[in-house]
Amino acid sequence: MKLSPDQYILFDWGWGRLNSTICFTWLIIVLLAGTARLITRNLSTSATMSGSQNLLEVVVSFISSQIRETIHRDPAPLLPFVGTLFLFIFVANVLAIIPFYIPPTASLSTTTALALCVFLAVPFFGLSSRSMKSYLSDYIKPTIFMFPFNILGEISRTFALAVRLYGNMMSGSVLGLVILSVIPFIFPVLLQLLGLLTGVIQAYIFAILAMVYIAAALKKEDREGKEVKKVEEIKNLKN
């Protein structure tokens, strides 16, 4: 039994191989980019708009509200990154109902790449609103001896993020194959619905965790801003 889409080789040229993980990943990218292009090429600001634009606005509004509730600030800077993460994982998992399709999220290489994107996004967004000194000071709190442990914590949570998504998707695929091989033609529909629900939940959880990690990097800036504002208010009262 093949446990990973990496093991399904579609083309072998000798000097290189194309497995189902790469193939379906690019298929999802093209699908998302093409759909976005079709919907946004004729956007309307009037009261009457297409159903696809309505659907797009609902999706964007939902993601924006989730970001705002998580980080308690303007969601615009994080919307492209978090939205892309959610939609990619969501579409990759939902397409699992199509016969012969293997979700690339069932590959550890894909989930690791997604987790590394989050790992790099945390300092990127953190440093976009904080100084280097302020951001790096978080790694030596409460004492400088905590520096290696804080670094290890960053690495371990990235690894956990990758393994969590991979484990859930891969185990679901394996469980479905095992049950279908034992009891064919009885529970395939139920298994597909269960897999669909699991895929949607995993996409949501991955996006939420990414927002939580980024929010943690931005939290200190909010605290510092409140402290500065409080000091200014005290000075104004004294004057």
Any overview of this molecule?
- With 239 residues, this protein is mainly alpha-helical.
- It is built from 7 helices and 2 strands.
- It has one domain.
- Strands 1-2 form a two-stranded antiparallel sheet.
- Helix 4 packs parallel to helix 7.
- The protein is globular.
- The N and C termini lie far apart (77 Å).
- The model has no long low-confidence stretch (mean pLDDT 79).
Concise account of the structure shown:
This protein has helices at residues 20-40, 51-71, 79-94, 108-129, 132-136, 147-182, 188-238; strands at 9-12, 17-19.
Question: What would the keywords be for this entry?
Answer:
239 residues; two-stranded antiparallel sheet; 2 strands; 72% helix
Low-confidence stretches: none
Structural class: mainly alpha
Strand order of the largest sheet: 1-2
* Average pLDDT rating: 79
- Strand residue percentage: under 5%
Evaluate the radius of gyration. 22 Å
Please tally the β strands and state the result: 2
Q: Given the structure, what is the number of helices?
A: 7
Biggest beta sheet attributes: 2 strands, antiparallel
How many individual domains?
A: 1
Distance between the termini: 77 Å
Note the overall shape.
globular
Helix content: over 70%
Order of helices and strands: EEHHHHHHH
